[in-house]
Amino acid sequence: MKIALIGYGKMGKTIEQLALERGHEIVSIIDIDNPNDFQSEAFKSADVAIEFSAPTAAFDNYMKCFAANVPVVAGTTGWLERMDEIKTICKKEGKTFFYASNYSIGVNVFFAVNKYLAKIMNQFPAYDVCMSETHHIHKLDAPSGTAITLAEDIIEQIDHKNQWRLKQDAGQPTDLVIEDIREGEVPGIHEVHYESDVDYIHIKHSAKSRAGFAIGAVIAAEFTAGKKGFLSMNDLLKF
């Protein structure tokens, strides 16, 4: 499979290594210094583009991919207010777009566990629920897309929580509090905490490195090539 990479930071380089190990070809690498390469024949020849850039550049990158008729696997968060535009373009113009807030297989298992646990805990309102997430200091968006997914799944199940807020902004009992921590080079830690007067229940996912996210993105690209429409981890994993 021919892959184009958009964004060539630490994640892009890890994706490149793992894609090559799986027998794929990297036909184009686009970073901040060569945006005109979206119009190159090499980029247009890609079966799929994997994009891990910056929130401010992501949507424009997707439009350039659509213009070149190259399917997108999107790994950037922090632009989600424009997601409906992407879905409309996929539906009306037949473009292909795969989005996940986190490509780690382990994190997606964690999503499923979190949703199931929240459904159970809704029967026990004596337990309050909150979240924490820790990432490296280079991460621009807070909370992370992963934390937002976890929070939205909790709110969907827990009747006494109706919105998530960062810890510094929260003030109502109905707020699902998210503590966001940025330190060092931490790849990602996400925790969900339930507390009552008598005990605690915690679930936690800790990434050891970027490799889990990168291999998931390559697997998503393998799945996306040749397909049409808006796709997600629910289509890929089916649990």
Task: Describe the overall structure.
Helix content is 37%, strand content 25%. By secondary structure, it is an alpha/beta fold. The strands form two sheets. The chain has a six-stranded parallel sheet, sandwiched between helices. A five-stranded mixed sheet has the order 7-8-6-9-10, covered by helices on one side. Strand 4 (72-74), helix 4 (83-93) and strand 5 (96-99) form a beta-alpha-beta unit. Helix 1 crosses helix 7 (211-224) and helix 5 (105-121) runs parallel beside helix 6. It is elongated and about 65 Å long. The relative contact order is 0.17.
List the helices and strands and how they pair.
Elements: E1 2-6, H1 10-21, E2 25-30, H2 41-44, E3 48-51, H3 55-67, E4 72-74, H4 83-93, E5 96-99, H5 105-121, E6 128-135, H6 145-157, E7 163-166, E8 175-182, E9 189-195, E10 200-206, H7 211-224, E11 229-231, H8 233-237
Parallel strand pairs: 1-2, 1-3, 3-4, 4-5, 5-11, 6-8, 7-8
Antiparallel strand pairs: 6-9, 9-10
Helix pairs in contact: 1-7, 5-6
Task: Provide key terms for this protein.
single chain; 239 residues; alpha/beta; six-stranded parallel sheet; five-stranded mixed sheet; 11 strands; 25% strand; elongated
